[in-house]
Amino acid sequence: MNTFTGTSSYRRFRPGIPAALAAHLAQETPAGSPLRLLDVGTGPGLVAQALAPYFDEVIAVDSDQTMCAEAEAALRPALSAGQRLHVQHTLAEDFMPPAGWHPHLVTCGRVFHWLDQPRLLNRLNEYIAPDGVLAVFSDRSLWTADSAWQHTARTVVQQFLGEQRHAGDDVFGPPGQPYEDALRASAFHEVTTATIPVRREWRIDEVLGYLYSTSFAAPHLFGERQEAFEAALTDSLAPFIEGGFLVEDNAFTVLTARRPCVRGR
Question: What is the pTM assigned to this prediction?
Fold first, then answer.
């Protein structure tokens, strides 16, 4: 079973990336014509959608066929005249671009943990543009965030599913080496770090939708207890509502990696 089986609410409830992050990544991208983006593990296309206005050609890849269909449906209608898009169903580690197609920016948003990192990095070194940039970035998920209401929501999930974090029908693996170490061990070992803050407001139904979009709280994991879980979560979060919303202060940690002695524009 795919880790994200049953997470059909992914696009509706997963937050996209803020405009400030898209602008930061665009600024880090070297000049090129046509300017090319490869979005790895695109899911429903949230990262590609935010970055598409900056690029002439976009390729988005994902290992889940349903996610690819959602990305295609969202991205295709928003293309400007002359822009090119290709959404491909494949493992990121197996992807090879068309002959002569060299991305200037490769993005891994909230997905690097799930990948065979050495294999992906070796493959990228085969085809990324000579001065191309790899960007690995993520914000804190509800499981790892530390506000009072998010801690409470995580506790309710654990009451129903157990203390260990799920990854679909399995459990979440132990943390691997820090992303920066993985990058520094690759050809892309010139690494810089940036932090992009973001504030979000959630309704309780949106928190539920978000949880159901994750691998650790997918709907099928609750079985016949799903209705009881929803009631417990609603009751537990109600005291934290401010002005009709649950307020979240989060931040994206952004690692941009290049081959040595190559600078962006």
Answer: 0.88
| HEC-encoded secondary structure of the chain | CCCCCCCCCHHHHCCCCCHHHHHHHHHHCCCCCCCEEEEECCCCCHHHHHHHHHCCEEEEEECCHHHHHHHHHHHHHHCCCCCEEEEEECCCCCCCCCCCCCCCEEEEECCHHHCCHHHHHHHHHHHCCCCCEEEEEECCCCCCCCCHHHHHHHHHHHHHHCCCCEECCEECCCCCCCHHHHHHCCCCCEEEEEEEEEEEEECHHHHHHHHHCCCCCCHHHCHHHHHHHHHHHHHHHHHHCECCEEEEEEEEEEEEEECCCCCCC
User: How far, in Å, CA of 103 to CA of 188, rounded?
Assistant: 14
Residue 171's contacts (CB-CB under 8 Å, 6 or more residues apart) are 164, 165
- pLDDT of res. 73: 94
Radius of gyration of the chain (CA): 19
Domain segments of the chain: what residues? 10-258
User: CA 127, CA 100: separation in Å to the nearest integer?
Assistant: 9
* Residue the block writes with tokens 């990305």: 71
Question: In one letter, which amino acid is 70?
Answer: E
Which residues of the chain are modeled with pLDDT < 70?
1-10, 166-176, 261-265
CATH architecture group of domain 10-258: 3-Layer(aba) Sandwich (3.40)
